[in-house]
Design brief:
By secondary structure, the protein is of the alpha+beta class. The chain is 48% helix and 16% strand. The longest helix has 28 residues, at 34-61. Residues 94-204 form the Cytochrome c-type biogenesis protein H TPR domain.
Length: 346
């Protein structure tokens, strides 16, 4: 039974590993702000509550299947059961069992969470990949997978990770971790409008823990204050999909929203990337998103805003993509620029 409770402890730590890291992952430009301490406070609260809640639930309903993890008795070495070597041994036994039974999606997910506890995000990512391949329509599993991918990349929420986050939200628009990760990614790229939208959605998730809802609201307030201090030329764009084309779009399709100069060049002055399930959406384009210092929004008086849906996620337009344009507008124009995606690239 010692080994069993070791596994229980590992699973509890795994659950915490799935919840706490997004709260503690603070962007470099945010460090030192009050939000960092609040993230840490909420993480501490979860560390206290999750094990107690999980233990209470287990004592009420039990989970005999967890004993299947233990395929051999723990060696009597005289060491404490919670020693790192013992944890590694328990996880190794689980990995060995999965090699013999590779179609156990729940087992792969358990192994992935155990690897996260052991600070092995690379191994966790591979285990989550196996679990997702067996159970691709589990939004929570996809969100955990995205978190492991980010951890394996030093906290970088890259395009591959964003695709997994988008897939999770396409399955469950209220998946809390996926919303938190999407907000963090938007904040990191200084797309404060999108970050606020994701945090607003997170704060409204049904049955969300009050502490998390309060933290989301604090993030919203502080991001709005930060955005107000950032004085860079920008345009606000409202993008929607024509009703006639809605059936041609999958929730995970990529949407590019970008500004073009009126000089005939197709090099974007600023670009944002969304997923189709976010439409309709409000997007902010500004000078911080320019590809070259010599071509910024502020350098051109007349621009056009275009939006394109790409099923393949390619930056270059392709036949079958869906597109829309604002036509020429003033870059200094007040108000919101509307773009409707209503045409098909031939």
């Amino acid at each position: 039974m010692t080994a069993f409770w070791l596994i229980v402890a590992t699973m509890l730590l795994g659950a915490l590993a799935c919840v706490v890291p997004p709260l503690l992952r603070v962007p470099a430009h945010e460090r030192g702000h009050a939000v960092s301490s609040r993230h840490a406070a909420l993480a501490g609260l979860l560390i206290a509550l999750v094990p107690a809640s999980a233990l209470t639930l287990y004592m009420r309903i039990g989970d005999p299947a967890a004993l299947a993890i233990q395929t051999a008795p723990m060696p009597s070495t005289g060491e404490h059961a919670d020693a790192p070597a013992s944890m590694e041994a328990a996880v190794s036994r689980l990995a060995a069992r999965l090699r013999a039974d590779p179609n156990d999606a729940q087992g792969w997910a358990m192994l992935a969470r155990s690897y996260m506890v052991l600070d092995r995000p690379g191994d966790a990512t591979q285990a989550y990949q196996r679990a997702v391949a067996l159970n691709p329509r589990d939004a929570e599993l996809l969100a955990d997978y995205a978190d492991a991918m980010a951890s394996a990349n030093g906290g970088d929420l890259n395009d591959a990770t964003l695709k997994v986050i988008d897939a999770a939200l396409a399955l469950d628009a209220d998946q809390p971790k996926a919303l938190a990760l999407a907000a963090s990614a938007a904040f990191d790229r200084r797309d404060y409008a999108s970050a606020i939208q994701f945090w607003e959605r997170l704060s409204k998730v049904p049955d969300l823990a009050p502490q998390i809802a309060q933290q989301a609201q604090r993030n919203i307030d502080e991001t709005r204050a930060l955005a107000a201090k950032v004085s860079v030329p920008s345009v606000e764009v409202r993008v929607r999909l024509s009703p006639e084309l809605e059936k041609r779009v999958r929730p995970t399709d990529t949407v590019f929203v970008y500004a073009l100069a009126d000089d005939g060049s197709r090099m974007p002055l600023a670009v944002q990337r969304l997923s189709a399930n976010q439409l309709p959406a409000s997007v902010r384009l500004d000078d911080s998103m320019s590809m070259t210092p010599s071509r910024r929004l502020s350098n051109f008086a007349r621009i056009s805003i275009e939006a394109r849906v790409s099923a393949a996620g390619n930056a270059r337009p392709a036949t079958g993509d869906l597109t829309g344009s604002s036509g020429p507008v003033s870059s200094k124009e007040a108000g919101v620029i509307d773009v409707t995606i209503a045409d098909v690239v031939r």
